[in-house]
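Notes to self after the call with IL:
- keep both proteins in one doc
- input above output, always
- annotate only the second one for now

Protein 1:
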Amino acid sequence: MERHAQFSITIGALGIVITLIGLFPGIIGLEAASGIGVLQVLVTLFGFSLLYTGAYVFAKLEFFADMPATLAQNIGIRLTLTGLLIAAAGGLADVLGFGSHPITEDTRPLLGNLQAITFVGGILLASLGVVIYAWFGPPPKDDAEDDAPPGEP
């Protein structure tokens, strides 16, 4: 089990690093243009996806190993995926054609205020899904029930 924990923590840490590179490209020496571009949004989404994947693998294999997933955990996974989809739609709205800054030959896609709020809201919704997954797992097997004589509750 220890290898699974190390692997999931490594995936989560890699997700954090990639997210930071997407948000602040200057930390690895890349020249950042004004505003937040499409590539930054895509790299940030990829980083958050890795982070959430690492969190789910860690929670499943360390806390809930050999236990079936509960309905609340399934809802948590779907909430995370929905949050990532909302963040992607908000961050890539100009590229997808429904943003407030239409793409022309002279301009590039730009992350506007409403799009940024949608992006952050989607990430927060996805984070809530991870928390729901971890909190509402199946209860641990109680050892006291196994030791009770037959016929006594």
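Protein 2 (the one to annotate):
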Amino acid sequence: MPTALLYGLISTLVISIIGQVGFFVFILKDNILKKILIFFVSFSAGSLIGGAFFHLLPDVIEKNDDILMVFVWTIVGFCLFFMMEKFLRWHHCHDKECEEKKHLGQINMVGDGIHNFLDGVIVMAAFVVSPALGLATSISIISHEIPQELGDFGVLLYSGYNRTKAIIFNFLLSVIAVLGALVGYFLSNEISGFANVIIPIAAGGFFYIAASDFIPEMQKEINAKSSIINFLVFVLALAFMFVVKLLGL
């Protein structure tokens, strides 16, 4: 088995398993959950931005003569993730307005499945370019899996699914990343320049998730001490991704 394929499959399997940690976090008491979750959010924001700036964009720019198109595809990625959230993951259903809560869970599962599939494609494409880029991309995706999957699990419970069904559906949706990895490997080998398109798109998606989902959550913290700690966790994540780049892991 080619090394890139092996690494990509292992990484997506690990990502799928780690996504289930959200369930164990969810059973904690609300006050403990809120204290823990914000640190995951802060670290996720930093690792996504660090992954995009320190790994994805520098690597694709280095291998691409048309730098302008790199940024064009980055904007495309930003817009793509915006549209995905707007139409597939937008939790617009409220108690007073929604006749069928289960519809919300179905929308969320469709969006989550597509998101996980793209994660798999992105991870595999990165490993095809280099093991170091694949590792950095996997770290960025893993970092936001817990808060993301926690939210998805909560939506399924809110939509009327019991815990057993929520766990099963959440796991099956997570495993879609493996299918995405297989497709990503095929596309990377069959389409010339595929990595030069999908990697900046991933960078744009990382920007969007960090800027629209995680940083706004950090800004909701009004306690000065907690805000400082959250910011330090954010900076720590940036530093971690920078060190990973310097070490070339």
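Annotation: The first helix runs from residue 3 to 19. Confidence is low (pLDDT under 50) at residues 91-100.
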